[in-house]
Amino acid sequence: MAGQRIAARAAACATVTVLTVTAGAVARADDDFASLPAQQIADRSRDALLGVRSLHLRARGDLGRGRDAMTVDLSLDRDGNCAGSVDLGGDKGAVRIVKRGDAVWVKPDADFWKNQVPVGGTTFDSVLAGRYLKGEASDSRLRPVVDVCDLDTFRELVSDNADRAGGTLTKGTVTTLDGVRTVPVTRDARGQRVTAYVDTGGAHHPVRLTVRGDGADAAVDFSGFDEPVPTATPAADDTVDVSALLGRTPAPS
Asked: What is the CA radius of gyration of the chain?
């Protein structure tokens, strides 16, 4: 049971760390948005991000605070569906995550079991033999994965942190990222510089966020706005029920 909780929480913490750091620097805009003041661009792009039904995010790099560089790669929607992975960096291991409806699948790799669960981890890895742990979304041991797979959790982080960012907000010159024309909006606060590159067309979503300073050097790319989360789930013979491996969830006291 401890191994599963650690796997779930590691995935959740890696994702939430990235989202919390970047929240508050994002924005939106109108047709002539590149000429707007930085604050208006930021406010309107944030609203565009909060309005999406689904998205794909890829966060990578070093967030400082003594952490290894990590990678979070997730597609998620407001219905709580998600698919992707979290790599904790270095030799700490990685976890694949799939959630569809009320079912959740989690597959930590061998490095994760070895380094994150030093007591019994290799046994769990041997029993699973490369298969996923499967459980219900209502299982308390999987709650961190369930929460991080819900786009509403991400939206709440953005909304709650938007008014607390502080610092100085400035606008840069229009630049092209991966073929997308964007305008950068940068916030300097608490020793870090966070820049949102906002699409000058369409709904004006932020397409990239970068975090620099105070030991951090990371980036988050957004794409797949309102596109469905992949529906593929692990086959039955590629899964082990979480209760079979860890026992049934203890009844509430």
From this structure: 19
